[in-house]
Write a structure and sequence with these properties.
79% of the residues lie in helices and 0% in strands. By secondary structure, it is mainly α. One of its GO terms (biological process) is electron transport coupled proton transport.
Length: 175
């Protein structure tokens, strides 16, 4: 009986570790540290890029290249803004940063704009890359339908969890 209970706990731990690799946004929502929340968000973007590259079609490779470029620019700016925030106020935890954007409006306006770019809103750089990839998923030849549907489902969950993570961060910083 004791062995069965410990095996179940080990399996649950294994599922949590696999979930961490597949959906880091789920972990970023509960992270209290500012830079860690941004880092989890960008780890998920790397997973999105790997999914794009794995299909090896010209359109998806172009979309992933565009996503890599936008990921590099947006990530560098967001981490720069988080680092300069730490240098100015020496606070790491989001709970203690409540309404800090009112004291530094220019910095957090830039953070808000680049967070929206990270969300791939229309008119931003990441939107075109995601649009290319989803267009290719819909119109491309899918030889293995079930894995493609599974990957599309995981990508859709990532796209749903990304705004929850970043918008909750913006909510804490602005209110």
């Amino acid at each position: 009986m004791l062995i069965a209970g410990s095996l179940i706990k080990i399996r649950v731990y294994g599922l949590i570790r696999i979930n961490m690799k597949l959906l880091p946004h789920a972990h970023s929502i509960f992270s209290r540290k500012f830079k860690k929340r941004i880092a989890y968000s960008f780890v998920s973007h790397i997973g999105f890029i790997i999914i794009e590259i794995s299909f090896l079609t010209d359109t998806r490779l172009n979309g992933s290249l565009l996503k890599i470029i936008s990921h590099g620019v947006i990530g560098a700016v967001l981490f720069f803004l988080a680092g300069t925030t730490y240098d100015r106020i020496h606070i790491v935890y989001l709970d203690e940063m409540a309404a800090i954007a009112i004291q530094m409006p220019t910095q957090f306006t830039m953070f808000s704009i680049f967070s929206m770019a990270s969300l791939a809103l229309p008119g931003m750089k990441g939107f075109v890359a995601k649009l290319i990839v989803f267009f290719e998923i819909i119109t491309g030849q899918n030889y293995l339908l079930v894995p493609t549907l599974l990957i599309t489902f995981v990508m859709a969950i990532k796209i749903i969890l990304n705004p929850i993570s970043l918008l909750s961060t913006l909510n804490i910083l602005w209110t």
